[in-house]
Amino acid sequence: MKTNRRRFLKLSAGGLVGLSVGGVSLKAFANEQLDAENPQAKALQYTHQSEKEDANCANCALIQGTEGEEWRPCAIFPGKLVHSDGWCAAWAQKPA
């Protein structure tokens, strides 16, 4: 099948719109704060307030999002936000 230039441009534009909407959807997906009673959180001993000196979600290699925000996405808890002062057993020091 021969693809003409107009069809190519339509498909490209549609792909860009899809990627843009998809990015917004993924960001909106991670908007629920993690409940410490969540079974996965309990299994990993997650707490909103770390009791470990110099070990919290803010300085963990698994934290995502913008530095300085109080609640941020975490790779361990998809679709959930963890508290920057929190901690869990999956904590790993950010590389220097």
TrEMBL record:
Record's signal peptide: 1-30
Any one GO biological process: aerobic electron transport chain
Record Pfam families: HIPIP
Single annotated GO MF: electron transfer activity
The UniProt record lists the keyword Iron-sulfur: yes
Key words, A-Z: 4Fe-4S, Electron transport, Iron, Iron-sulfur, Metal-binding, Signal, Transport
Record Gene3D superfamilies: High potential iron-sulphur protein (4.10.490.10)
Ranges of residues in domain High potential iron-sulfur proteins family profile: 28-96
SUPFAM superfamilies, per database record: HIPIP (high potential iron protein)
InterPro entries per record: High_potential_FeS_prot, HIPIP_sf, TAT_signal
Function: Specific class of high-redox-potential 4Fe-4S ferredoxins. Functions in anaerobic electron transport in most purple and in some other photosynthetic bacteria and in at least one genus (Paracoccus) of halophilic, denitrifying bacteria.
Family recorded in the similarity comment: Belongs to the high-potential iron-sulfur protein (HiPIP) family.
Subunit record text: Homodimer.
Protein name according to UniProt: High-potential iron-sulfur protein
